[in-house]
Amino acid sequence: MLAFIIRRFAGLVVVLFSITVIVFLLFFATPGIDPSARLAGRNPSPETVAAVKHEFGLDRPLPVRYGLMMKRLFISRDLVSYGNQALKVVPAITSAAPVTFSLVLGAAVLWVVMSIAMGLLAVTFKGTVVDPLLMIVALIGISMPVFWLGEVLNLITQDRLHDTFLFSWVPPLGYTPFTENPWQWFLHLIIPWITLSVLYIGFYARVLRANLLDIQNEDYVRTARAKGLPPRRVLLKHMLRNSMITFVSLFGLDFGFLVGGGALLTEVVFGLPGVGRLTFQALQQLDLPVIMATVIYGAFFISIMSALVDIVYARLDPRIRPS
Amino acid sequence: MTSKRRWTWLLSVLALAAGFSLMVAAYGVAANRTKAAPKQAHKSVGTLKAVLDTIDYLDPQQAYTGQSWWAMWNVWETLLTYRHVDGPGGYKLVPGLAASLPSISANGKLYKFKLRKGLKYSNGQAIRASDFEFAIKRGFLATGQGVGFYTDIAGAKAFAAHPTAGGDISGITANNAKRTITIKMAKPRGDFLTILALLFAAPVPAGTSPAIHNGNIPASGPYRIVGYDPNRGFTMLRNRFFKPTKNIPRGNPNRVEVSLIGDANTATQRVVSGSADYSNAAIPPDRIASAKNRGHLILRKTANTYYFWMNVNVAPFNKLKVRQAVNYAIDRKALQTLVWGGLGQPTQNVLPPTYPSYKKLTLYSHNVAKARQMITAAGAKGANVTVWTREVSDALTAAQYYVSVLNSIGLDAKLTTLPRATYYTTIGKRDTKAQTGWARWLEDYPHPLDWFDVLLNGNRIVDQDNNNYAYYSNKKINSSIESLKKAPVLTDAVNTRWAAVERSIMKDAPWAPWSNRVFPEYFTKKMGCIHIQLLYGIDWTRLCRK
Amino acid sequence: MAEFAYEPEPEPEARLAPGESAREISGRSPWRIAGRRLVRDRIALAALALFLLIVVVSFLAPVYANRIAHTDPFDSHISATTTVDGKEVDVIQQGGGELGLGEVPIGPTWQANYFLGADNQGRDVAARVLYGGRASLAIGIGSAVICCLIALVLALLAGFFRGWLDATLSRVMDLIWAFPVYLLAISIATVLLTTPEGINFGFVQIEASSLWVPTLIIALVYIPYVFRPVRGQVLSVREKEYVDASISQGASNLRLMFAEILPNVISTVIVMLPLMIATTVLTESALSFLSIGVQPPQASWGTVIEDGQGLLYTRPWVAIAPGIMIVLTVLSLNVLGDGVRDALDPRAKVRVKE
To answer: Is residue B157 a contact partner of residue B164, using CB atoms and an 8 Å limit?
Structure first.
């Protein structure tokens, strides 16, 4: 087991290294990426440009440049953005991450609770009109582009029905840190949470329902029923518990993906200054240091969550452990 | 280079050099309206909530955008400053930290200042005469964006070549005990006083590191900045160590909460919903009419020109007829509505109308049929054209219209959109051979040279970072510009000569200018005492509630 | 924000779908069985009909634009007028007041011209939504097909030859997998868009504004999502007796791959295809919404939503209409995907989401 974990993490390091190299090469092949003209200020003399180039190591061969950037990112942690000289990359990410975490955590709570409720309801009422109805709702949720849903909700809550009792509580777009005002933090995030979770509610409800239906004929479920346990108890105690293995592993991957920057569209639509939006802005500005840092950050979360899921799986089911 | 195109309208600081005639023009709609407002005593507005578009830095030696200066003007004082009054009086230089205007030697090379007594930063530390030199040195150490203005100080070039914290600019000497500052120039410079009034020259406490400090350098003005967060905003609080003078008032608001909001819709919504008192962000065209009804909208003119350039070296724009046809084909009035919802004036000139050299041109009246004939006559029908623009909403909107105009007169146009960061570098490279595209120019200082010499003088075409996107080079025009460069004062005769140059250029039609943009200042209906300071825009220190 | 995974049964073979008797499927080819099942699945058929309807309507966009609305959806019509209820009105209406400030494009007329109103360039939104559908569907279908084909070939090679080839390909897939899908797509798109002269593959030249750019980018980022399950299946089919038998008979590698293994894994790809298209349509709209997909003045559903974002509070239909089209398309594909899966492989678990 330990060997497996070590191997899995060694693989993770290799993946992260390769990703940084790919991103670095991808962007250094781009015209206009050289920020020296931008950084050198007003009507710079060629000497000033050269000095700036030297300061950022832009006059060095590519591998050295890569090394310098990594050193300033991980060791001295003073890597500075190409677009805004006051923007230090590491603090920029550490201040954006709580926003993304707030968004994703809240949405995750919402989608786990809602999808389990929907899945259980659908299975309980299988054969009635409730089941297909719930599943259609779930499918519609899966089919909506998240940015469009966000815009429509904005239209309703910020403008059309903003002056009615329904949505007069909705604050203007933006973010308030939890440490500053927990209540405002909560209010600002309610609509984004709903927007982000709709897709996952639909998806997880469908997966859970299929899973529950799959195992309802398994021996242990039938045994439990034969023992005369009430159906609700069988459903919650035996079936749901068993389905949770798939559920949790899916959750791990999705959570890593979203925390790693996958919530970008939601952040853009609601003006939340999270990691996804930071990455997108950096890409628009071709701000390589920020891009590097956010991509590493994102890949790290995705890889680590998938490694964790693998390990958990391997623990639960030794057959999966690769030879 | 890019800094040139920032919100440099505030750089009309050097307006003094250009004479007072332009001020009346730059004065704008609002000033007329508010001139009659009764004089306000120190009437507190409590907390003022303002919305700004993005800013660059809140560091006097670094900031170079109008939004930053709007706030910083009342946070860091310079030796000389501008008055808090409406109209042309706002261009008048008055003592700031200095006790009086300086004495200047007859040869214009020696400036002597004396600081006021008892000046303190917001941390209680005394403002010393030597802090001025420290600030100038700090600018060079940090390669701040304004250092180019100060290289004529004796010894500044030597310092700039090898800036070190312990180094010295030989031309600046200070006596802290006597509170005197002496500045020796390497060569005289007529606009030097206005340059000293730029925030780049604001003294900061000795020892402040050259790294960018966003807001956390102790203030010398009536307010200080706290809690800067690049994603959200910052707050300005009263500086309790500040003592008001005749020229620098205490200011009405006790507290100014500034939100930084890049999205125009959201910014406008803040004022409409009353969660902000004021916004200077753009207003989406479709919302202007309703915004006007739900708040108080004021338009402020600044010196800028938006234009489409046509590369005279590349077919089909190497033909005069084609370039003229494009000028005939553009519906300039409709374009104002389209792009800024009418917050702009149609123009066919290179210069903005705020200039004394400006003489309105009406060479090309809107006539698509004529344009089509000209294209056919020039044999350019069906010619392929790539229109270049950058990934910014207004530029994209204007360029899409431009593409369809070119198509409507018989050319075969398509659009190429580049990211903000690379647009000017790419079209400014000769090898790109970009045919035509979107551009704008915002003044650095109010002088025709800032336009014709930088943008249309053929002698200044370079292979990289070129500003003459049309690659326009006309020997006669070039020599006219060179000779006008030597004219020191914009007399009527000089102005007439500039107007003639402009007319000949526009007959050659390397550009199709289309707009002088006007900027919205948007208040809730509760706000009163709205004053415009010509250089810095809305004077928030004087705002009050009705 | 996309995740796509498919867990096929390791040994696909004929199984009974619910409500099907053994007699009905015995002795028939799996394809015919699947076809029969699909035809019986009314919901899936309805979804297919809806999808085809959207495709047909979108590809009839020129007919709407030229014959009905009489407008060019790619040109600005900022000073044009149109007739509503017999009255001539401006397409872009100037704001009122002494200054004549502001502009508002005409709203939905619910008539032939400007049915859904105009965008801020005075272009007919309905026509742009239809043309946008053409682009979105072309990119969605194109990238899904390209992605599935490439992934299938790679999976066949990796699963068949195993060894270093498999190891290399799998590592590359792991790499792509570790990128957040959108971030990878956005990175590549950004880089390509700064290269306006386009990319030169030697034999073909692709311009930065070409629809091929988003198509290929989207195809690339989803390859691992198809590659992984298919490779697993190839690996298991490779171990089957009949494959061994063919090998012992001296069958060539090519023959083994295409005649023996491919038919056994193709159903997996077919099951995934509708769901892949649903995913790629959503991805295209997201990229275009972030203005790095289809480039204006061309239209796709995503670009029309982006145009509508600026008009959200005054002319919400500009943003809402293309969104509804996306929802209908993706919904129909998801339902169809369920149907195809049930028909081909009743017990497999397919999941797709965006």
So the answer is: no
